[in-house]
Amino acid sequence: MIDFRPFYQQIATSDLSSWLESLPLQLKEWQTQTHGEYEKWVKIIDFLPHLSADHIDLKHAVKAENDQPLSVGEQQRIIYHLKQLMPWRKGPYHLYGIHIDCEWRSDFKWNRVLPHLSPLQNRLILDVGCGSGYHMWRMVGEGAKMVIGIDPTELFLCQFEAVRKLLNNDRRAHLIPLGIEAMQPLGVFDTVFSMGVLYHRKSPLDHLTQLKNQLRIGGELVLETLVIDGDENTVLVPKDRYAKMKNVYFIPSVDALVNWLQKVGFTNIRCVDVEVTSLKEQRKTEWLENESLIDFLDPNDHRKTIEGYPAPKRAVIIANK
What we know:
Layout (H helix, E strand, L loop, with lengths): L4 H7 L11 H8 L7 H10 L7 E3 L5 E3 L6 H12 L6 E2 L1 E3 L2 E3 L3 E2 H8 L10 E5 L5 H8 L4 E5 L3 H13 L6 E4 L12 E7 L8 H11 E12 L8 E2 L14 E2 L1 H10 L3 E10 L16 H4 E2 L2 E5 L7 E8 L1
Helix pairs in contact: 3-7
């Protein structure tokens, strides 16, 4: 089982110490109801070799390498274990000559978001819905003091821990398998990211309030989500599925999203990027057995989803508490 005690020790003397009032009990309960494959995934982490990278680059990529390259056989053994943790959705990772070519080129999104952020140097950061943690490592590469990701999906936790092991067991980033609705309002984070989460929430205003409750006064929210064209009253509520996803509830226009943020008390709200998701950014690879974006779009008109809705377009909004 994954041991969270080192994390507890790390935060015991920090601004996060009050989290220890609830978190250990929550994770103890979580461990009693994990996915049926969880124990197998944890064993895969144990099977990975203990490598000590001579060079780690988290500034320009998520990359580890040695002066003496691994043999082909050593690489193949690592690839075999990592492929037992498929599908790999957010990446890419470059580890000892192994390229984990994930479904999403998450570096594209990071390059769009990064120029608009307040400097992350020495910041305490929360990444909500962090997936396997690709963006967390890039935040560490920008000098963050500590990055905590939350995501309840056990596979993502195991992917994160596998990558951490291959990054010299770096303890500047941690993934906690909870949803934000289970977090007590800590009010201490300098920056809170919520990227690709809002449209999965049945109550988007509650989600925005939960994000606000984790920020310190003056802290920065980085919100990335699906949007549609329209005015402040335009919100798409898909009847059944959107791009084959059944858990998409509300897709607002940028103006409607700004209005929502104002309603829950955010200030200095600005949209810094709007981008249609391209087939280069989200696509099927050998690290993903499932369908990907090309399968979610109308084959005769890529401006529409297969259900006839506008194709995925994403906006980045930055605001302050």
